[in-house]
């Protein structure tokens, strides 16, 4: 019998988990990771240790092994129910046993059980996984090692057996008893420009004349105080590529793991297009209590709710005339700003902005399913396709139920999701975007929420690349079986990765194949071709095969409780054949080679987790360049970690955002002159009253100021500038050009007047 003796919470009790060591190996756009958990029993009785840890939703875990007293024990992937029975049987017989499984309600959380850890024993558990590396807006590939697991909100009793419904202690950073180390090796034929991180690194070493490889590691002494993030910049990130991998020789030649697989990567450099004015934009904003937490554990970190409010106002100001919009706030219950989506006007914008300023993180838990269903039940507005923007810290339990609901309604809308703060559920955020054809973003610290939210808004407003297809030119003895689901549209700045099987006989001599990406953009046909070798290099980890299996599992596996019965058997089969864990399988390892069985009873030890609670909110900024009237109006003042001059400029730009009218114009008043850094009397005196009305002159001056002073923050104001220029177009071009020259002279700037022509 396993005896539960409480939780391990105090400094005086020893902790079974001592350290975590991570080895990262990236190759072009994919990463292989090996994480080793080092346990030691310093107590006087045998232990069963239990550790819960996060991992990216797209990770394909394919290996789990234990090193005990110099002996390696490789785990087997089994049906989850069978693995649990084997684990309990092993413990009852005194054998050492190890169990690794996904959480039943979230695909990005794993639990590790170490049973019958005898007194004085040391064991190293190693799990291995592979994943695609997502792209950032600036072309960087991003690897994140989630280091924080927030307590998730429990909605009902349907997930009582989840590993998240646990009593594992939560401790502050200084009491966290285990450490983290990481070494990363990066390689790419594209050439590596630089590597950046949100954590302290050792110096980066580059190798090769064209810098095709690099190595970097975390600085000594790093703890789990934040997610570890690496940004990798390649020289030729837009170059298409194809990687081919031979199958496992022991498998059937036409099976998933036996046939050769290929990974096709296209990243078309699609230009920005004109902004569409139609659409229904619904913003679903998390106002649960957890949104009071800071973005991360760093000092002066902004609160999640403040970052979300600041961003929502910017998005509202950036919407085009002619659209419809609404805002839902949710927690344990939900509220709507308007009974139905309303036309975007100056009046509706002002009402919405005032309500956003009053939003608080006081709605209790995080129940997103009910407001989602309410949104989907609304009648669609003809000619205005629904674009849903979800902002949440993702601390929910019913992840798979929410994903299933979004997928069921995927033909009605696109969902753009944003995970706010560290510890957010990657399973929720990535999946609701993927199943609806939208995009997902994660905001944890220095990367600004506004940047990523505006990028998604631009995508929702732009024409998409359509009729996406692949064609192949291969030797006659080869054919292609596509594994990835078909993707018929593509956003600007979005990468396309497709997995296929190569069926038939691979050539024995050096031979090439060609794949062609074809698509339509603005009525014109485009294509990109890439030639690749059909003599691939061996990969002992079978990275491409495992990623292809993960892709296939994701299309059929909706969680332990939500997957249709007809899919369960197929998911298990794919999982066990590929070695990639699913909701229905678990890794089990049993060491029976003991001199004598471990004698119980066992103490139960839950490894503590780091808390995000108690972080200090950002103090108020006192030296902000704002007039008293702006402060009284309650405009949000952003918390910035920029240089002084950069901080002031961005704050000024965000104030201009607040002052802009829905139609794109600015009014001539003291608040505007204060932000522009000029006396209001001088602005009035410079106004050519015989030519234009005051708002036209104010708008021209503001656009000139933005180009002269805000180029580093073009991503903040480009949508607003487009609205402003469109509003000015009712004046003749010659008049606008002359006014631009007059404005340049008054402001002492040298902006090209052509910016006012469309």
TrEMBL record:
- What does the record list as GO biological process? cardiac muscle cell fate commitment
Which stretches make up the VIT domain?
1-131
Instruction: List, for all copies, the residue spans of the domain called VWFA.
Output: 280-461
User: One Pfam family for this entry, by name?
Assistant: VWA_3
SUPFAM superfamilies per record: vWA-like
Q: What does this protein do?
A: May play a role in tumorigenesis as a tumor suppressor. Altered expression of this protein and disruption of the molecular pathway it is involved in may contribute directly to or modify tumorigenesis.
Q: Can you name this protein?
A: von Willebrand factor A domain-containing protein 5A
């Amino acid at each position: 019998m396993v005896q539960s003796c409480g939780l391990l919470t105090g400094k005086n009790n020893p902790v079974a988990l001592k350290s975590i060591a991570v080895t990262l190996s990236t190759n072009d756009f994919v990463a292989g990771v090996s994480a080793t958990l080092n346990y030691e029993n310093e107590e006087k009785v045998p232990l069963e240790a239990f550790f819960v840890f996060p991992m990216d939703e797209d990770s394909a875990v394919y290996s789990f092994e234990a090193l005990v007293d110099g002996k390696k024990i490789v785990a087997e992937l089994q049906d989850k129910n069978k693995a649990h029975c084997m684990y309990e049987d092993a413990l009852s017989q005194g054998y050492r046993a190890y169990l690794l499984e996904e959480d039943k309600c979230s695909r990005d959380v794993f639990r590790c059980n170490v049973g019958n850890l005898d007194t004085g024993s040391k064991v190293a558990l190693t799990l291995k996984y592979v994943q695609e590396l997502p792209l950032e807006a600036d072309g960087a590939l991003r690897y994140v090692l989630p280091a924080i697991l927030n307590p998730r909100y429990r909605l009902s009793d349907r997930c009582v057996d989840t590993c998240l419904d646990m009593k594992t202690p939560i401790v502050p950073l200084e009491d966290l008893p285990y450490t983290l180390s990481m070494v990363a090796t990066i390689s790419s034929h594209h050439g590596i420009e630089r590597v950046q991180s949100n954590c302290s690194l050792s110096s980066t070493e580059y190798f090769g004349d064209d810098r095709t490889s690099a190595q970097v590691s975390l600085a000594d002494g790093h703890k789990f105080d934040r997610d570890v993030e690496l940004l990798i910049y390649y020289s030729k990130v837009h170059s298409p590529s194809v990687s081919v991998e031979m199958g496992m020789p022991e498998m059937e030649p036409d099976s998933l793991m036996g046939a050769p697989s290929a990974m096709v990567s296209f990243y078309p450099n699609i230009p920005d297009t004109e902004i569409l004015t139609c659409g229904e934009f619904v913003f679903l904003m998390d106002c649960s209590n957890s949104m009071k937490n800071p973005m991360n554990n760093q000092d002066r970190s902004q609160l999640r709710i403040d970052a979300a409010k600041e961003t929502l106002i910017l998005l509202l100001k950036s919407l085009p005339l002619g659209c419809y919009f609404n805002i839902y706030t949710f927690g344990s219950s939900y509220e709507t700003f308007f009974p139905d989506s309303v036309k975007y006007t100056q009046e509706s914008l002002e009402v919405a902005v005032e309500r956003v300023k009053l939003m608080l993180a006081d709605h209790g838990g995080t129940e997103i399913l009910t407001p989602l269903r309410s949104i989907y039940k609304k009648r669609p507005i003809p000619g205005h396709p629904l674009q849903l923007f979800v902002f949440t810290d993702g601390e929910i339990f019913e992840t798979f139920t929410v994903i299933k609901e979004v997928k069921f309604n995927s033909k009605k809308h696109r969902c753009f999701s944003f995970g706010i703060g560290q510890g957010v559920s990657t399973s929720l955020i990535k999946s609701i975007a993927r199943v609806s054809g939208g995009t997902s973003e994660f905001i944890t610290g220095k990367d600004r929420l506004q940047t990523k939210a505006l990028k998604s808004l631009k995508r929702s407003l732009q024409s998409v690349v359509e009729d996406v297809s692949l064609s192949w030119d291969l030797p006659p003895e080869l054919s292609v079986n596509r594994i990835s689901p078909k993707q018929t549209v593509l956003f600007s700045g979005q990468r396309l990765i497709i997995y296929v099987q190569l069926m038939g006989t691979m050539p024995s001599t050096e031979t090439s194949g060609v794949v062609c990406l074809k698509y339509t953009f603005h009525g014109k046909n485009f294509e990109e071709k890439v030639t690749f070798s059909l003599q691939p290099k061996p990969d002992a980890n079978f990275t491409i095969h495992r990623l292809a299996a993960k892709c296939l599992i994701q299309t059929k596996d909706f969680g332990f409780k939500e997957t249709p019965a007809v899919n369960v058997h197929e998911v298990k089969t794919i999982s066990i054949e590929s070695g990639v864990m699913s909701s229905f399988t678990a890794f089990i390892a049993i060491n029976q080679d003991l001199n004598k069985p471990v004698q119980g009873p066992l103490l139960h030890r839950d490894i503590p987790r780091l808390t995000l609670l108690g972080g200090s909110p950002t103090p108020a900024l006192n030296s902000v360049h704002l007039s008293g009237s702006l402060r009284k109006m309650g405009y949000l003042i952003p918390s910035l970690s920029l240089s002084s001059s950069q901080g002031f400029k961005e704050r000024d730009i965000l104030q201009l955002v607040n002052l802009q009218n829905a139609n794109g114009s600015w009014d001539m008043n003291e608040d505007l002159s204060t932000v522009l850094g000029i006396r209001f009397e001088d602005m009035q005196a410079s106004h050519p009253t015989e030519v234009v009305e005051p708002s036209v002159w104010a708008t021209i001056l503001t656009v000139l100021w933005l180009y002269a002073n805000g180029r580093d923050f073009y991503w903040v104001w480009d949508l607003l500038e487009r609205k402003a220029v469109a509003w000015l177009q009712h004046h003749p071009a010659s008049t606008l050009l002359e006014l631009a020259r007059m404005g340049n002279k008054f402001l002492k700037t040298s902006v090209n007047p052509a910016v006012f022509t469309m």
